[in-house]
Amino acid sequence: MDGLFERGRELDELDVHFARATAGDGRLVVVEGPAGIGKSRLLTEIRRRAEGSMRVLSARGSGLEGEFAFGVVRQLLEAQLTKPERREALLAGAAASAAAVFGEPDSGADGGGATFASLHGLYWLVLNLAEDAPLLLAVDDLHWCDRPSLLFLAYLARRLESQPILLLMGLRDAEPGTDPALLGEITHDPAAISVRPRPLSGAGVAEFIEERLGMAPDGEFLAACHESTGGNPLLLSQLVTALRSEGVRPDAGHVGRVKAIGPQAVSRTVLLRLARLPAEARAVAQAVAVLGDGAGIPTVAKLAGVAEGRLAAATRGLAHADILRPELPLSFVHPLVRDAIYHELSPGERELQHARAAALLRDSGAPAEQVAAQLLHTSPRGERWAAELLREAGRDAMHAGAVDSAVAYLRRALDDTPADTDRGRLLLELGAAEVFTSGRAAAKHLALAYEELAEPASRAAAAGLLGRALLFLGSGEEAASIARRAAAELPDESDDLRMGLEAFEFMTINFRAGDPRHLSRLREYRHLPGGGPGSRMLAAMAAWEAVCTDGNAAECAALALAALAGDHLRAADPALIVFAAIVTLVVTDRPEVVEVWQPVIADTHRRGSLLSAASIHIWHGFSNLRRGDLAAAEESLRTAESEFGLWGHADSSVAICRTFLAETLHERGRSDVSGLLVRLGTIDPGENTTGWWLGTRVVLLTAAGRAGEAVATADELAAHCAAIPDPARLWWRSLKAEALDRLDRRAEAIELTRQELEVTREFGAPWSLGRTLRVLGTLERDEDRLREAVSVLEGSTARLEYAKALAALGATLRRARKPTEAREPLRRALEVASACGAERLAEHVRSELHACGARPRRDALSGVQSLTPGERRVVDLAAAGRTNRDIAQELYVTPGTVEVHLSNAYRKLGIRSRSELERVLAAIP
Ligand SMILES: Nc1ncnc2c1ncn2[C@@H]1O[C@H](COP(=O)(O)OP(=O)(O)O)[C@@H](O)[C@H]1O
Ligand SMILES: [Mg+2]
Questions:
Q1: Measuring from atom 23 of ligand 1, which residue has the nearest CA?
Q2: What InterPro entries does UniProt report for this protein, alphabetically (predicted)?
Q3: Does 381 map to a domain?
């Protein structure tokens, strides 16, 4: 290769990151700059330097393969998976769900838009690769990377911490690329390191010219070259190649020639050089431009109409003219060179060539996706083979979790399918894929599918999906009406399908569709469900309706558990109605919820979509918040937040995610309240999430000392609860009471909380009952009530609420001048609050203890009792001899998180190593 000039500074800088990454401190480096500035060249140089010490894997985005499902990921990783044993080892454990990306046949999962599962599997595949040697993943031309691969790179980029991985990307700035928002997710990551190669200086340009022309340039000539290229190495090399081919000497007499070639050197000089080559060489260059870099020799030869035997001579001429690279696989020296040649073809010619390429590839048995990529560049001709092939490519992409690619192929398949043929199933497939990418398009195609399909189960499936798409688009009324219509049109024997549609229609009411009073019809279903998913959906909705109106916790929970039994509900409806059942268990404080979550979370990692993963992480976060496992709650909710970021669509789910996260951060004492209020954002009234949002706003306003606004917001919450069944019926009064108390309106506050006590006693779940008792006991300064609060919560799963009750009891005792008696509950409160990670409460309790004359040391908390639930889980697994990687896979966290938990736990336990763990744990009963 030719010499590399003036890159010492960049390489020194990169060497540092390189060393850190090799040592296990993962890095993300983005080499950015305009076309031709030398990004690819720098990437090549770094790869070369890394060869000895890292495993180097490379890939390149290419505009032509824009829709190739996971094209870049496959370029990067596929070669590692060719040997069967190694493949098995690399795809073991959590990496298993990546197998679909590499064309493994169906693993029993439906694969429907399993994007999240693919991302998670690929992440572990990369960690597995990095286990025996540090890994350099180099992705050039990131702007042209296919969207599924881009999603993965964004996912990986956030999880490099504590891994020996250097993720190195080349990115042309000012190029919108495949997906600007997603590119932004990667490049705007605070941890991303940006490197910008600079233009060559006058001295660099001189060296460059001397090397290529074998002669030092004269001063004026050099100045002209520098000025006309701005020191851009690509422009310079094209200019110099042009000068060389004309036999120009680099002296003052030829300055005019430099100026004549001018700054727009690339396309003009390339085309000029190409025109001088024999016709066969031109045809070959055009064929490579159409087929894309890396095309096979036989295909290029056929498309160019050149005998294979003569291809070598043609490519040699093209390499000499600095158009193709001198090595295989065939590729252009630069994308701009390809562009120049490609765009010289008229649009009609281009299309014709792509159509011919598609036919050639099909005849040579190329994979469906490769043919499909060519077809996407042609206009539909209604050819049956093309439609079938595109449909196959669409299914493959869907199976791999590459939803965007699937949508592109299936849309084209639809265009290629004559309107008079049976398109129902194709429309259903397309709509089902579009649900994940574009709600509007999904709604349109699913509505058509519904019209065209005849068989009842498919019709019901189309209606169910259509309803969900409409619901997430904010068209609850339409969603309800399609469900109603589809239910009415089902044949008599399809009872369970009908029930599923009915359950969905009830759900739409929570999204502002229809009259909330209709929800009371769900009371008919407050009995254990029959066998099918439809009746279980109704049971789940009935359980939730009961929680929100007049149900009793034990009965609601029994109904929810019955709905969830046997997993039929989740299989039929993984991301909507299933949450009615699970959240019922959360609000009723059932210990079973831990076991219920396990398969749900496992399953989403195995085959879930990004949207279902985000929803699951939200509700799992809420579940942990209720249980007082704040670190786990924060982790889930932040994960959900970043999944929404990757997904790129916002809806009311984002509001609920923000709500729970704000509350969690507030309890953790990590952020100031006014910041959290800003973070909470806004919400539309009457959403299914409005009640949660208003409640959190009351909490934060009260904490911020804005009690007047808090009362007003609590009144909004009260009005909301009166209009729409909402679980906040169990706690809005005590929230308002706490705000009223700040305004010295204690009598009102007490009256309101007494009313709530009737409600929560009737309901009978520890969290809400304990909460009412605590607020009332504090207001009334009634030790007995507070003791009752403590005893209601003591054996429950609601640990944070338990700590709050203890703290309230201690504080009330202290105020009653019983400091000695107060110490015991306060000490216990401090213990439990710390184990919850509830720093705000812990801080408050510490000051109470001080006021009682006790002197709690800051680090007084040690021992197994002080471990947070998350730390405890990690410690137990570590003590059982599991490696950090095993633990990370089992708990669905990153190895970095495991390390953090372990080191915190060691500190609390006063030990240094894993070997001591067993002894410490054995010492406790
Ligand atoms: N620092 C350099 N010294 C010498 N040649 C360079 C340098 N940087 C780039 N080149 C050459 O310039 C051309 C364009 O560089 P390339 O890395 O492909 O640009 P980019 O990827 O930024 O579009 C290539 O032929 C490359 O070898
Ligand atoms: Mg480049």
A1: 36
A2: AAA_16, Sig_transdc_resp-reg_C-effctor, TPR-like_helical_dom_sf, Tscrpt_reg_LuxR_C, WH-like_DNA-bd_sf
A3: no
